[in-house]
Amino acid sequence: MEQEGSEGASTDSITELHSLTMSFLKQMEVLLGNDLIMCPKTDAAHPDDHNMDYSKVDSRLDALKKDLQRFEEIVNTSDEFHKTKEEQIKEIEELSRENHMITDTLLSSIDEYNTMKKALTGVVDSALGTLDSSFSNS
Which spans of this chain does the record mark as coiled coil (predicted)? Predict the structure, then answer.
């Protein structure tokens, strides 16, 4: 059960990282678009003044910084990203051992079922033979 919980947490972290990455990429796309980079200030007194209005760009950069901080926080706090190769190999080996035990148990159960089926078939055949001979003798 504990593994299922950690897998769920890992999945949540990965989902959130994916969401942050997509948000980051979208914001970068918008930042690189001409409509935000080239937004001249409008000033009636100086119509030829082409000072740039970077307020939208600054707010986008602030949002990007927040997303990147959250991304870094998830990566730094999630156990899944801090497992060493040895830990991952041990986890895989443990899961493999569990898989082999389950497989062995299933094969053993199938063998028991087949043995019981043969025994029951023998009992039924014997009973039918006895009934058949009883009716033949009557």
Answer: 54-105
Hey, how many other C-beta atoms are within 10 angstroms of the C-beta on 27? 15
Cβ atoms of residues 110 and 118 within 8 Å:
no
Identify the bridge partners of residue 40 per DSSP, sorted by sequence position.
52
| Beta partners for residue 52, in sequence order | 40
Residue type, 61: L
Backbone φ, ψ for residue 79 (5° rounding): -60, -35
**Tens place of pLDDT for every residue, the chain, 138 residues?**
344 445 555 667 778 777 877 777 777 766 666 444 444 455 444 444 455 556 666 777 777 788 888 888 877 777 766 777 888 889 899 999 999 999 999 999 998 998 999 999 989 988 888 888 887 776
